[in-house]
Amino acid sequence: MTETAPTTAPADDGFLRDLWYFGAIGRDVKPGKAIHREILGEPVLIGRTHEGKAFALRDICPHRGILLSTGQVVKRDGESQVECPYHGWRFRPDGGCAAIPSLTADQAAAMDLSKIRTRSYPVAERYGMIFVYFGRDPEAEPCVPPPVLDIPENSKIRMVETDIFNCHVDHAVIGLMDPAHIPYIHRQWWWRSAKSVHEKAKNFGPVERGFSMLPHKPSANSYVYRLFGGQRQTEIRFELPGLRTEYLRLGERHVTGFTAVTPTNANKTTITIVMYWDVPAMAVIPKALISKGIRTFVGQDRDAVNAQQKGLAYNPQLMLIHDADVQAKWYYKLKTAWEKHRTTGEPFRNPVKPATLRWTS
User: Fold this and answer.
1) Is 150 domain-assigned?
2) Could you say which enzyme class this protein belongs to (predicted)?
């Protein structure tokens, strides 16, 4: 006989479900190993079988609640299984219980292990990253395909940077897409200066579950872009739940920055920046210098958003203006449209319409 401990339904956290979230860099999960992540306030084990296939489980043993990731991935009966470190219960990559070592022979014969499981999550591994699907219904198949980047799927990851914002994911997303803060938060000689501020106009259009700052020549007042010469074009795409991709195209070559804004929980958000490039000239620039630039840039956003939380603690009335805050407005409208689609079953209708936005930056 087994008994299930009572659980409390989580409060509305503002997180979107039925979408793919960034889970881990593929090379960080070795064959026969597992790591722990917290995503959307849920404990997640991301593991890899001994044969190299990635999988994800709810990182809680249903027996006594210990994190399964603190155990080990073992090979039993010809398959990889996660072994709980507390009592040795073992779970298959699909979440089903494979063994309870403490049972005697007659107890094991009477126990239906198929009724014992921990949740499994669909995973997809591409571009060197592992994505995890969080469905509202744990049994349902993914309703959308995994994220697609406009680069070869076997593209090599050149650099990864990670940071933590102590805020809800909404504030992290809006903070990163906000164009008006750049001359104030990111004022440095190699990016922008106070004297370089001028009016800009950018064309936008809808993409799948998001929007794009359509291909254009990079801003002349960004010193870094000028290093790549005149034949350059950039595009910035945003897609739910919080995936931002910036493409810098140099003829047939590219420098691509993928940013995953992933809610850890209601008060913490993980920012993961993954860089790809096939531009020979990038080999001349020391990676340590590129890394320092990215960390400085993201760190300035982090400090600003973290400081913002002190004011938000007083629950002030906030405002969004045209045109600089239209991307933030689109984000909220996209979230509402997605929730309506998943709740009512109506087709998803992207609220973003083609537009030219103007601001000073």
Assistant:
1) no
2) oxidoreductase
CATH number, domain containing residue 35 = 2.102.10.10
Q: In what order do the strands lie in the sheet with 72-76?
A: 72-76, 79-83, 90-91, 97-99
Both ends of the chain: CA-CA distance in Å?
66
Q: How far apart are CA 59 and CA 45, in angstroms?
A: 5
33 and 122, same domain (yes or no): yes
Count the Cβ atoms, other than its own, within 10 Å of residue 284: 8
Tokens standing for 87? 């009592």
Q: Tally the domains of the chain.
A: 2
Residue type at 100 in one-letter notation: I
CA distance 26 to 48: 9
Record the tokens describing residue 183, joined without a space.
């001359």
Question: Under a CB-based contact definition with an 8 Å cutoff, are residues 218 and 234 in contact?
Answer: yes
Give yes or no: residues 227 and 327 share one domain: yes
Which residues form the domain of 103?
19-134
For 135, the token pair is: 């469905």
Asked whether the CA dihedral 189, 195, 196, 201 is positive or negative, the reply is positive
pLDDT tens digits for 62-75? 999 999 999 999 99
Selection from 141, 123, 140 nearest residue 131 by Cα: 123
- pTM (global) more than 0.85: yes
Query: β-strands 159-165, 129-134: how paired?
Result: unpaired
The alpha helices in 11-89, defined as continuous H runs, are none
Cα angle value 361/314/299 (rounded, 5°)? 40
- Sequence-ordered alpha helix ranges (H) in 202-325: 223-226, 287-312
The predicted-structure confidence for 120-166, as pLDDT tens digits, reads as follows: 999 999 999 999 999 999 999 999 999 999 999 999 999 999 999 99
In this prediction, residue 8 has a pLDDT band, given cuts at 50, 70 and 90, of: very low
The interaxial angle of helices 169-177 and 287-312, nearest 10 deg, is 120
Contacts of 162 (CB under 8 A, 6+ apart): 270, 271, 272, 273
Spatial distance between the Cα atoms of 125 and 49, rounded to a whole number of angstroms: 14
Alpha-carbon distance of 200 to 20, in angstroms, equals 33
Question: Cα(163)–Cα(299) distance, rounded to whole angstroms?
Answer: 8
